[in-house]
Amino acid sequence: MEDTLTERSINVKFRSSNGDAFDMCFDPGQLTVQQLKERLVTQISIPADNMRLVYSGRVLKDEDMVDLYGVKEGHTIHVVRGAANRAAEQAANVTPTTSTQRNVNGTATNPFGINHFGTSLEQDMRNMMNSPVIRQLLSNPEIVRSMVMQNPTMRQMIERNPEIGHIINDPSFIRQTMDMARNPELMREMMRNNDRALANLETIPGGFNHLRRMYHTLQEPLESAGRHNDQSSEAANQRLAQLLNVERPPEGRINNVPLPNPWTPRNSATIANASNPFGISPYSMMGFPPTQLSFSPSPAASRNAPTTQAPTQSTTGTPSTGTSTTNSSTTGSSNSTTSSNMPAPSFMLPTNAQNISTPNDPEFIRRFQQLMQRYMTSPQLVSSRQQMPQYYPASFFGSPNPFFTPSLSATQTPVSTQPSEPPETRFRTQLQTLEEMGFVDQAANIRALLATGGDVNSAIEFLLAHRS
Amino acid sequence: MAKVPRNFRLLEELEKGEKGIGDGTCSYGLSNGDDIYMSDWNGTIIGPGHTVHENRIYSLKLHCDENYPDSPPTVHFLSRINLPCVNQQTGKVEPSKLNCLASWKRNYTLETVLTELRREMSNPHNKKLPQPPEGSFF
User: Fold this and answer.
1) Would A114 be classed as within a structural domain?
2) Which of A15, A412, A413 sits opposite B20 (nearest CB)?
3) Tens digit of pLDDT for each residue in B29-55?
4) A17 at B interface, C-beta within 8 A
5) Domain encompassing residue A219
6) Are A83 and B134 in contact (CB < 8 Å)?
7) ipTM of this predicted structure
């Protein structure tokens, strides 16, 4: 430090928000706030760009001299971590990402700093997404779209299902998917919302029937579009139903069969995909699964690539036992496609076997329920819940961005209508109807409506049955 | 108990603010060090974690009139903030909507007001309210 301690130097306490405190001696007439921050960096683990100094109810400005604020001997300045300066953020964007140091294999470092192997896939994904080249690339929905269309599997899927094409054509959907892939916080938040709403859904008797109907109207076409060779989805579906002991409930009666528990232990590798309603990871959506991304056909990349298949193959390809009868023909074939495409220098890698779920995979059921839940939390649809089968396909695909808009807005205002509303408000209209019909006991009415998932007719039956 | 006169009371608070006694989440001091009446104060609130306010610092202006501490100070937000108790046109904290101002007691301090405002930010009803961009002012 070139500035010597003059007679005007004072001793000032610094306190950080995590409770650390230390003293520092400096001359407030000689230092700007910026310089002071640079000296503090040695004491505290906050970069100078993120550091905010607060004294006497004022935030110290970088360009001001410290004595402007009248700091005196023995006084305390609070050190707070704030958001990074805009300028600093831009600078960070220009500097290349530095994840190459974690290149576990010691293979040639590739220009994008992307790790082909490694357990911290999420970290890699984030690094990749934050790299300036990718950012720029993905900020253009048109490019993303053409990337998706390059993938033959995706193209076929879109041709078969115009609804999916509609989604792909929506630039805001693409942007949101990218945001989600970039921001693990957002992803986690969405997953958390899903779980909570799902827990609520499960408590409604007959909820599983809704799930089943949803499967028929939506998830099944999507899934079978992904597995274009497999025609046996109906049979597989039946198997799933048998597996879960679900019988078709008698029409017009209340389903009081307890719901099966789909939360059997699951593969942690697929967590990153969990909030994706397509049952396809966002990466493979775009045409490049994370482990197989190769922008430049560098020798190291193509040499590594086939081996990355090995673990996947061994997990999904194992002869199944007990409950999980994996559709090995599908996974096998998709694996071979991926490996053969591997050295190609563009984004042509279609289906990561892991991401294509068979209907009797617990992971698949879970995703499917999340899909369902996304629909359920969409505020404008809550009111039409009991007419779900009719409303469902139209409204689902009718809104410009059906999958992501509801839950994204929910991350900002998570007062999601369905889970938090008390039954009195949720069933207001139904309660009124029942009251007009002469069922005056409101508590009983609510109980009946809860038991029947808001269906007035079934609720009346329920009330009559339980009256005696 | 003896009634502490206004100026002694404010000097006490000034010292506490400058020395940073407290939990460190709120800071306050005179906006003009030469003001012998100690009427105008600056305050900052460090946004509570796990809310939309995280990593934000809110600046406020507090005014203690001659009746302080018998009557509450008037409080204005300088940084824009979306809270039910803050007037969105002026930034004024509506005394009727903030409990400690509405039922003011003599032993309340400026710090009481700031901590209560901070608690208001982390209130489950408010902590996810959409907020104006950081760095905008009333």
Assistant:
1) no
2) A15
3) 998 888 888 999 999 999 888 889 888
4) yes
5) 123-225
6) yes
7) 0.86
